[in-house]
Amino acid sequence: MTSDVEEPGAAPPAPPAQAEAVFGDSLPKARRYAELLADDGVRRGLIGPREVPRLWERHLINCAVVEELIPEGAEVVDIGSGAGLPGLVLGMMRPDIRMVLLEPLLRRTVFLDEAVEILELSNVVVRRGRAEEAHGQLLTDFVTARAVAPLPRLAGWALPLLRKGGSLLALKGEQAEAELAAGREDVSQMRPSVSDVIRVGRGKVDPATTVVRVTVTSDGGPPASAGSQKARGGKKKRGRKR
Ligand SMILES: C[S@@+](CC[C@H](N)C(=O)[O-])C[C@H]1O[C@@H](n2cnc3c(N)ncnc32)[C@H](O)[C@@H]1O
């Protein structure tokens, strides 16, 4: 009987035609990363085996197209990187940016450290921890995040990490507009900001990647902990999983 579920150690699918245009010179690194995800990533439970056949469109290219929102030389913190999406992809495409992959779970940071070394990404560092623990320690131009938390909780974690004029770029699905409409007031109470929804990668990935962008318009700003339970992270602290 055949199955569409890939076994650990399976080769990733070949990159689709548009991968060359999206990744350019970094395509060899993207191919190597796809191999790592399909093999070690699945074996170690970092991505599901069902993701392997759709690694390129749904994961690598979906994340890569966000690069157009990041200006040259920017500092970026990717919170909740997991297996490296989107932070590792953006770091490999853009040697001009400085990328911090912020991830609390040890087995994920071990994989990320190995991937950074194998892909020789001297502009990417891995830091183990929760975003809210980095408040007052990290200050950056952009925070990226995909599939980490609902917008108000994510903003509570991300906005204190941003310099004035910096942006949270939250990769969201089809419900992005509704999520922003529901969360906009909470978010602007945390720190003065302007928010919009942008679609990037039209013609390169279908559906285009939907990004909720929250740009902070004030210096510093009160720490998120001055606000609501949502801003503090919304959940009681639990022991750190490994
Ligand atoms: C569903 S995974 C998404 C991983 C990756 N961004 C992706 O799109 O494949 C959510 C990740 O967020 C991390 N995470 C959860 N709470 C966090 C926090 N407070 N700060 C930073 N990362 C967190 C988890 O450990 C996990 O790796």
What would your notes on this structure say?
It is a single chain. By secondary structure, the protein is α/β, with parallel strands linked by helices. It has a single domain, classed as Vaccinia Virus protein VP39 (Rossmann fold). It is 33% helix and 21% strand. The chain has a seven-stranded mixed sheet, with helices on both faces. α6 packs across α7. It is globular, with a radius of gyration of 17 Å. The structure holds S-adenosylmethionine (SAM). S-adenosylmethionine binds next to β2.
Describe the secondary structure blueprint for this structure.
Elements: H1 18-23, H2 27-43, H3 55-64, E1 75-79, H4 87-93, E2 98-103, H5 106-118, E3 124-128, E4 140-146, H6 151-158, E5 162-172, H7 176-190, E6 193-200, E7 209-216, H8 229-232
Parallel strand pairs: 1-2, 1-4, 2-3, 4-5
Antiparallel strand pairs: 5-7, 6-7
Helix pairs in contact: 6-7
Bound molecules: S-adenosylmethionine.
Protein name: Ribosomal RNA small subunit methyltransferase G
Region (Disordered): 215-242
Keywords: Cytoplasm, Methyltransferase, rRNA processing, S-adenosyl-L-methionine, Transferase
